[in-house]
Amino acid sequence: MCSLIQKYNVPGPRYTSYPTVPHWDIDTFSGKTWKATVKKSFDESNASEGISLYIHLPYCESMCTFCGCHKRITKRHDVETPYIRSVLKEWELYCNLFSEKPKIKELHLGGGTPTFFSPNNLKYLINGIFKRATKAEAYEFSFEGHPNNTTKDHLQALFDVGFRRVSFGVQDYNETVQKAIHRVQPFEKVKEVTEVAREIGYTSVGHDIIFGLPHQTLRHVEETILKTKELMPDRLAFYSYAHVPWLKGNGQRGYKDDDLPSAEQKRRQYERGKELLTQVGYHEIGMDHFALPSDSLFQATQSGTLHRNFMGYTATKTQLMVGLGASSISDSWYSFAQNVKSIEEYAHLVENDIIPIYRGHILTEEDRVIRKHILNLMCGFETSWEQPEMYFDEINEVVQALEEMRNDGLITITKGRLQVFENGRPFIRNICMAFDLHLRRKTSKTRLFSMTI
Ligand SMILES: C[S@@+](CC[C@H](N)C(=O)[O-])C[C@H]1O[C@@H](n2cnc3c(N)ncnc32)[C@H](O)[C@@H]1O
Ligand code: SF4
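A: This is the predicted complex of the input protein with iron/sulfur cluster.
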């Protein structure tokens, strides 16, 4: 396994979209085509399945030095109300495009730290959204909470407006690691918020843990998982630490490259983590995720309805996902668009009735076929090009590029069908990279992605 890790540990995308953001064709993109594809997608899907909403709440009180998310650090809470007003204004701009009231199937509050905002302000935000929308059948509303500032009032306020799923950032319970990433967070705090969420009635409580952090050892990962076992979250994100210090402003400093575990140590942390989680009763879902059999994410893998979008894995697939807030990404299936990242510019644009996107991509027919292959691989570890609608001209080159992985016993390809073996799963990003025609045609000279392992 060690030599395979050396061989396949190259920079690679996580495929929350295809094409990935660095390969978007911004020259053929325009606000006009974006709006047209949103309208088309809405008309095709709102009545049957509804739409998804992602709302980015970018503020955090304190900077975690490992963090790759788009956030603004401040202790000033007077930023809350103006930001929510901007989000509601942006929502109004989208609703003006729609031919009828949107039905919301999936709603996710991400960040930054949604629980930076007061419970009342969060309620005000959600009620504002539903002044112009209704809830779809079997909706799933979720949010990300920081264990250090999530209160009972936050949990209750969001429960009252329909939220049943929450995920808490944990990362690692070891104090040395916590100090290195500038995030001191005792187990008792995580225990308290997890228990309160359950008492209130949340049906899915998730924890995010990470391997490969600075100063993190195999022992720390084991101890974190043993502590996790005491709380048995319904879902677990078990992320590989993405080290991307060259991206501007993400604050990944405060430790040296030498403080990070090697690729081999990292892989052992993942293998051991997976082994322990499986022993405890979790099932691996696609890449990075584990769930108990009672959780909807596991049930979606069983029924073949697991989907992946910018939020990661989800049990509820919709064709249209509108992303509100600074830096949010939207997906109409036919196109992607990203909002401006500066909060000030975002507020200014929506105030002037402009949908605040600054870049995007219109998918070609070929993009959509490849996107389906990558979704199949990421969600079900297999794909097939037997059906004419899944065939594409460069498939032979893709198969050739996968030859080495086939020889290494990681995958099998027979009669137009690729299946990934259990020992090939850690290399799923590499397998998807073979299908990524944009990457193949335009291998960038700049480092854009973190390592695959
Ligand atoms: C927006 S945060 C979660 C909510 C809240 N802000 C918190 O930290 O508790 C989203 C999650 O992304 C993950 N994350 C952030 N930066 C990462 C990185 N560089 N590599 C891997 N995972 C990362 C962390 O597990 C984190 O909990
Ligand atoms: S990990 Fe969460 S709290 Fe920490 S900086 Fe990132 S978004 Fe903010």
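The two ends are 12 Å apart (CA to CA). Confidence is low (pLDDT under 50) at residues 444-448.
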